[in-house]
Structures are given as C-alpha cells and as structure tokens.
Design goal:
Bound molecules: glycinamide ribonucleotide
Mean pLDDT: 97
Number of helices: 7
Order of helices and strands: EHEHEHHEHEHEEH
Radius of gyration: 16 Å
Helix content: 25-40%
Distance between the termini: 9 Å
Length: about 190
C-alpha cells in the first residue's frame, strides 16, 4: 500500500513518516507532492530518495492529477502541513483514505488561514490553558472532516508561539505515523 505525502513547509512530519515506514512490510511512502518551490520538504525527499513533485494550482485543481497519483500507485494521502483546499474530485477518490494533521484541538482554531504559527498565536492570545493536535479525515472544507485522534498539551503562561509550536511538533511526531498505520490497516 503506497502513501503520498502532501506538504508545503519544512517537512519535519514528512521526515518522521518516512523514517517510521522505512522497511515496513506493507506500507511505503512513494511520493511527496509539494506546492512551494523552495519548501524544505524537498530536501527531506532528496535525503530519503523519495520522489517529489512540484504542483501548481492549475494541475492540482484538475482531475487529471489523479493520473499522476495513479502513475505512483498511490492508495493513501497524508497532508503534513499542506495548505490548499482539497478539491472534491480528490476527496471522493480518497474517501477515508486521506488524513490531515492540524496543530490545535479542532473544532477550535481551524479553518481557512489557520495554520502553523498563526494557530499558536491565537491560542496564546486567548489565554487557553491547553492546546494539542488533531488528526482527521479530509473533506471539502478546511479542517472539518471526521476526527480520528486528538492529544492535548498544556499551554503555560510562559509559552510563546515558538515554544508552543515545539510542543505541538513533538506530539505530531510521536503520534502521526502510528495513527496513519492504524487507519491504513483498518481501511485495507
Ligand atoms: C504542522 O505543525 C502541521 O500541523 C501544520 O503545519 C505544520 C507543518 O510542519 N499544519 C497546519 O497548520 C494545517 N492547517 P512540518 O512541515 O514541520 O511537518
């Protein structure tokens, strides 16, 4: 069973997912799809010899993109810091086979424009006592698909968006791959 990771950032989650599934009997990371030409995740792909492709909006929002995924025999999609809305042809083709990770406890702090540091800034500004991560199936709205897993962490008065991001990344790296594995085992 083959995974494509969609990412646009540094790619620390992508790196951890690749590490986790290296040598796995049934699950392979076959492709990284990136929508920013200078994204750090390209380096992650190169270091791990995973093919990476750059996409633009025209090709992503055109159903013929399914053929590209077909060429790589992709069965499952993981969004790891990917910020474009997923088009409905892709949601339909990968129903219950596409997971996203969000750096907060949805349904709070989700939606368009809520990503990375912006999420942590809002959490701190609102003096929340806790935040966390949410792993969910992807539907046609930002951050609204069925929730599969959440884990909380404490937000202290001393936290800054940077320190909170570090805590959240730790939770993400600890949990995302094993939840992907669990969902994939269940789906196939
Ligand atoms: C992760 O924290 C992920 O939760 C977040 O982007 C970061 C990517 O980090 N995703 C969103 O905010 C989606 N709305 P990474 O590039 O180091 O994996």
């Amino acid at each position: 069973v083959n995974i494509a990771i969609f990412a646009s950032g540094t790619g620390t989650n992508a790196a951890e997912i690749i590490r986790y599934f290296k040598g796995h009997n049934d699950i392979h990371v076959n492709l990284i799809v990136v929508n920013k030409s200078h994204a750090g995740v390209f380096k992650v792909a190169e270091n791990n010899q995973v093919p990476a492709i750059l996409i633009n909006k025209d090709s992503f929002y055109n159903e013929s993109f399914l053929e590209v995924l077909g060429d790589y025999k992709i069965d499952f999609i993981v969004l790891a810091g990917f910020l474009w809305l997923i088009p409905s042809y892709l949601v339909k083709a990968f129903e219950h086979k596409m997971l996203n990770i969000h750096p907060a406890l949805l349904p709070k702090y989700g939606g368009k424009g809520m990503y990375g540091e912006k999420v942590h800034q809002a959490v701190i500004q609102n003096k929340e006592k806790e935040s966390g991560i949410t792993i969910h199936f992807v539907n046609e709205q930002f951050d609204e698909g069925e929730i599969v897993f959440q884990e909380k962490c404490e937000v202290s008065e001393l936290d800054t968006p940077t320190t909170l991001a570090q805590k959240i990344h730790q939770l993400e790296h600890k949990n995302f791959s094993r939840i992907i594995e669990k969902v994939m085992n269940h789906a196939n």
